[in-house]
Amino acid sequence: MPWSNQNGGGPWGGGGDNQGPWGQGPKRPSGGGNGGNGNGGPPDIEDFFRKGQDQFKGMFPGGFSAGLIAIIVLVLAVFWIMQSVYTIQPDQRGVELRFGKPKTDVAQPGLHFMFWPFETVEKVDITERRMSLGGGRGDPEGIMLTGDQNIVDLSFSVIYNVTDPKSFLFDVESPIETLNQVSESAMREVVGRRPANDVYREQREAIAVNVKSIIQETMNEYGAGITVNAVSFQDASPPQQVADAFDEVQRAGQDADRFQQEANQYANKELGAARGNAAVVREAAAAYKDRVVKEAEGEAERFISIYDSYRTAPDVTRKRLYLETMQDALSQSKNVIVDDEGQGVVPYLPLDQIDRDAAQRTQRTLPASSSTQNLTQGASQ
Question: Where is this region: Disordered (predicted)?
Answer without folding.
Answer: 1-47, 356-381
